[in-house]
């Protein structure tokens, strides 16, 4: 009778050694790689420590800090593979799972609204007005609005709706910046084929915040000529006359450029927004955009600079928005145009 085969011993699992970046790297290197310093990484981790804590206690489970670091590395570079190549330890599969889990936690409305808030109280709006007026003397401004396209890979459903007028797939993102380059409102859910004016019309800003008079009288947003003119949304004259209209346009252009530079800062800080985001479905891309906006504001609050290696040139936003389609004057809301005339005549008649 043959002897029984010897029992095969199970090989012990081998784990890659993980780098303790919070202690091994100084703040300058942390900011370069992850866009936050050590205190900032811990601050963001504490926001979602509960949901990110692994309840099983299994071997080599990633800590909440490491999950935040993996996500930050992806947002800073746009490359998932770098998260597993930079001595962080996780496999590519783990990186993908961690990014999904961490995005879900950080993109909750309860977290986002702590850091992205639109000014509606007299104190808040007056502070924004003072900040904007210091730029070029344009009165009554509490925000500058624009859209920006974030490129995505072709989705499996409703693919045609995501093709913008430049011919690539994108999410059209509406964003408002204050004079300090902080984001006060962001709408990231519309396919690239949707026009800026429709996104604004369907937004809570139009229907609720301004539509129901939640902000004090005399508060305005500045937008380009792709937007409809409203009593609360001031756009440039298409063919300005010499005098108040030309003075108005000049100050409007200088002041509104805040949003173009703000979008540039956002995309330089988080390079994932520069190239094509190859995750599915598009709703996950929208989570990425909103989390980047929130983290940008946290960086502003904590005076964290954009790393010099990616801050050599001023970013110019997508020409889709720098040169918007010019609607005929007859199609622009007359009430808004009449208000613009009164506003320009009142505030810019004596401007030199």
Automatic annotation (TrEMBL):
Cofactor section: a divalent metal cation
Domain DDE Tnp4: 145-297
Primary location: cytoplasm
Subcellular location: Cytoplasm; Nucleus
Keywords tagged on the record: Cytoplasm, Hydrolase, Metal-binding, Nuclease, Nucleus
Region (Disordered): 314-334
Pfam families: DDE_Tnp_4
GO cellular component: cytoplasm; nucleus
Record carries keyword Metal-binding: yes
Record-stated family: Belongs to the HARBI1 family.
Function: Transposase-derived protein that may have nuclease activity. Does not have transposase activity.
PANTHER family tied to this protein: NUCLEASE HARBI1, PTHR22930
Protein name as catalogued: Putative nuclease HARBI1
């Amino acid at each position: 009778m043959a002897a029984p085969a010897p029992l095969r011993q199970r090989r012990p699992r081998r784990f890659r050694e993980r780098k303790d970046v919070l202690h091994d790297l100084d703040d300058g290197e942390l900011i370069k790689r992850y866009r936050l310093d050590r205190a900032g990484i811990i601050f963001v981790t504490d926001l979602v420590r509960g949901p990110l804590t692994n309840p099983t206690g299994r071997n080599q489970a990633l800590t909440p800090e490491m999950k935040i670091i993996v996500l930050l590395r992806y947002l800073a570079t746009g490359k998932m593979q770098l998260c597993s190549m930079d001595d962080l330890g996780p496999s590519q599969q783990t990186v993908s799972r961690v990014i999904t889990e961490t995005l879900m936690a950080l993109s909750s409305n309860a977290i986002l609204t702590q850091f992205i808030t639109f000014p509606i109280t007299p104190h808040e709006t007056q502070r924004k007005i003072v900040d904007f007026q210091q730029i070029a003397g344009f009165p009554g401004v509490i925000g500058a609005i624009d859209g920006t396209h974030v490129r995505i890979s072709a989705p499996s459903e409703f693919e045609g709706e995501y093709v913008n007028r430049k011919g690539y797939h994108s999410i059209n993102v509406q964003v408002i910046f204050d004079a300090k380059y902080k984001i006060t409102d962001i709408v990231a859910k519309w396919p690239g084929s949707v026009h800026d004016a429709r996104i604004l019309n369907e937004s809570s800003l139009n229907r609720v915040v301004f539509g129901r008079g939640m902000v004090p009288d005399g508060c305005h947003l500045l937008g380009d000529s792709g937007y409809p003119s409203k009593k609360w949304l001031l756009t440039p004259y298409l063919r300005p006359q010499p005098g108040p209209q030309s003075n108005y346009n000049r100050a409007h252009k200088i002041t509104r450029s805040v949003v173009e530079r703000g979008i540039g800062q956002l995309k330089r800080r988080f390079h994932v927004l520069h190239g094509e985001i190859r995750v599915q479905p598009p709703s996950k891309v929208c989570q990425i955009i909103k989390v980047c906006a929130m983290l940008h504001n946290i960086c502003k609050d904590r005076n964290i600079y954009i790393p010099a290696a990616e801050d050599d040139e001023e970013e110019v936003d997508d020409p889709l928005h720098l040169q918007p389609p010019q609607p005929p004057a007859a199609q622009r809301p007359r009430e808004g145009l009449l208000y613009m005339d009164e506003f320009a005549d009142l505030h810019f008649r004596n401007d030199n």
